[in-house]
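Standup notes, structure subgroup. Blocker cleared on the hypoxanthine input:
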Amino acid sequence: MSDLPSRMPARLAPERMAALLREMPKAELHIHIEGSLEPELIFRLAARNGVPLPHPSVEALRAAYAFTDLQSFLDLYYAGAGVLRREEDFFDMAWAYFERAAADNIVHAEVFFDPQTHTARGVPTGTVVTGLEHACRRAHAEFGISSRLILCFLRHLSEEEAFAALEQALPHRSHFVGVGLDSSERGHPPEKFARVFARCRELGLRVVAHAGEEGPAAYIEGALDVLRAERIDHGVRCVESPELVRRLAATRTPLTVCPLSNVRLRVFRDLAAHNLPALLDAGLCVTVNSDDPAYFGGYVNDNFVQTFAALPGLGPAHAYVLARNSFEASFAPAADKQRWIAALDQTFARYAA
Ligand code: HPA
Ligand code: ZN
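Run returned:
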């Protein structure tokens, strides 16, 4: 593997490997902020806002998190977001995420939000963005975490509705760096959103898109060719097209992979069956992320630690490459990336001693 620092541990005992994974500085590039809403906070916000909940307790709600596919998750995820009504609700949700991020040594986070989920029940986009942005500013002040917001369009809705969401968000343009595409993938190819993404590019927005999670490799090609996505969220089904894998490697197009999500949504049988090692071996710019940590059983460090424990072929060099990729793949300024990579090198040097 290229770009390894001069002082690197060759191999580590499992507990020491887990400690390194936890301690290494990292960026998270695939986190839906509504997917960080823990059941306890859902109940607290429901009480605060007088919103009735179908589940009688936190335990009953958590027990309902037994998903069979992406749609079965999305149904609960949209229902959970129904407790978010006021600016402080969005602040509290994002602040809880940043506290977890700080504990996981995340130094930079690019955070997805779904405005259409909220405008559908009468919550203005400004309420969403202002609450989230306040948490981003406080995370920088208190934890030194830098962050960006990325507005995601819901692909099960129409392109016309995506245009309306963009219009409503434009007064807050300075608070988000880019746009993405999420929700139900199958039957909703990237081509459906060609015109709205063209408009977003004209506006100078960065472009990412979910593709190749449940959908085929052709959806990844559509995201690249039609939406001009700079990163692919998930993308694990790229391996179904060797030509596409070669293209992603040659262009260093990042894939934001989410192992625990993939297992919970049955994209892979278990972590031991995940194709992360194959993606790394193919030289792809892969990163590890949590997706919807409150629903999928873990935050970013849980994803790293559990994935490395399940795949014994993965060691310190892979950990280094994954963390370094997370910085390279981010939309942060070059000077910040250099600073984070220097800190990463120092962490690995300490483990080499
Ligand atoms: N896939 C698609 N849409 C989503 C996801 C996901 O993993 N999480 C939240 N919205
Ligand atoms: Zn996602």
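Discussed briefly. The chain has a mean pLDDT of 97.
Next: hand off to the docking folks.
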